[in-house]
Design brief:
Number of strands: 6
Number of helices: 6
CATH superfamily: Ribonuclease H-like superfamily/Ribonuclease H
CATH architecture: 2-Layer Sandwich
Order of helices and strands: EEHHEHEHEHHE
Radius of gyration: 17 Å
Helix content: 40-55%
CATH class: Alpha Beta
Length: about 220
């Protein structure tokens, strides 16, 4: 199984930072279908002159309303498992704001791997793909954290992470259409919470199988 992860918003806490930080994922047995749909969507939008030829990847933040709806409708028709983690940043404890790397790792890895743990337990081998934005040193540290965190989650349940069942990869989103798909999913939820407008989420909400809100008061 392939899992693609991306986020929307920022994890800063300055007055100019976003109010919410959204992490989305798409898990699928057949990534070829997603790649095909996203490549076709980009080609169609270029042909219809609805999306700039200067852009070789689909980015939710660059799209107008027509493009967003078009892409999300394509994604909604795919046979895949989708999940969302919403962070309402005003509720993040001060002690958790001192190291954004640690906070990011926990938000992304703990919550996503907890949701996907039953699939690994059922014998699924999992390849987790992130947008390549970290330095080589940070990537090595992040990959180690994923392995250790998932092993610990298994340990908490009295089990052991099966050997060679998990791998993590970092790829430029321009080269990976599946990351572009999850960018749109995360973007739709970011728009709903940041702009208080659920028009895009309404297109895909029935496809969301895992939803986590951090932290509810």
């Amino acid at each position: 199984m392939d899992v693609y992860v991306d986020e929307s918003g920022d994890l800063g806490f300055s007055k100019d930072s976003t109010k919410f930080f959204i992490v989305g994922y798409i898990a699928c047995d057949n990534s070829f279908a997603i790649k095909t749909q996203m490549k076709r969507a980009l080609k169609r939008l270029h042909e219809r002159k609805r999306y700039s030829f200067a852009h070789n990847e689909l980015k939710f933040s660059r799209m107008d309303d027509y493009c967003r709806r078009y892409v999300l409708e394509k994604i909604a028709g795919l046979n895949s498992r989708m999940g969302i983690v919403v962070v309402e940043k005003k509720h993040v404890l001060p002690k958790l704001r001192t190291d954004l790397t640690v906070l990011y790792n926990w938000i992304v890895v703990h919550n996503i791997m907890s949701a996907l743990l039953p699939l690994i337990e059922a014998g699924q081998k999992m390849r987790v793909v992130f947008d390549k934005s970290l330095s080589k040193k940070r990537i090595e540290s992040f990959n180690y954290y994923i392995s250790e965190k998932t092993s610990y989650l298994f340990y908490e349940k009295g089990g052991k992470l099966p050997a060679n069942s998990l791998s993590s990869h970092h790829i430029d989103s321009e080269l990976e259409p599946c990351l572009q798909a999850v960018d749109a999913v995360a973007g739709a939820y970011f728009h709903m919470y940041e702009q208080m407008d659920g028009v895009y989420v309404d297109i895909i909400k029935d496809r969301i199988s895992s939803f986590t809100y951090l932290w509810r008061k």
